[in-house]
Amino acid sequence: MTLIRSFLIIILLILTKGNTLAQTDQPVKLSNKVYTILFVGNSLTYTNDIELLVKKKAKLKGIKLNTKMLAYPNYALIDHWNDGKVQKLISRKKYDFVIVQQGPSSQNKGRQLLLEYAEKFSELCKTNNSKLVIYMVWPAIDNFHTFGSVINNYREAAVKNNAVLCPVGEVWKTYIEKTNNFDYYSFDNFHPSLKGSQVAADVLVQYLFN
Question: In the prediction, which pLDDT does 31 show?
């Protein structure tokens, strides 16, 4: 019995050692990856420095980011495309995510431009190993009745191009209808307040990394 017991112990030790080696040989998941993001938009994006807010929100989740922004007043995606700067940046193949934002785009012309240039950006991103992200915004308070069209048009742009949709505008609408509070808007009733931009940053990080 003693001999059999000793033999079983030796076998157990061998198997345990083998399992340990197998576990050690497994590839280690690195947690120090730095994700790169390019923001493309207008004043709805650059107000309150969304780059910095997104970095801070991501850092709280242990996510490291490097970001760059191309955002100018009153720019639509067609304006960025015609400038030619964005194509040069994306073609460097260094961005994990390209986040694009247009104006509310609730009317037919805005919708057509959003769909047409989201497709162009999508093809450019696919060619250069980037993931296109659609940043849904919101209408001015005076045009609150168009909010449904804003949401539908941004969703359509994301679905047609297999892009990540960050539904910031939809989150805003839900909050406003639930609370009857418009404090996500700044004094001009269109651009985001700091609180509104912080909510936008939360949504962006959540939908990019979940």
Answer: 53
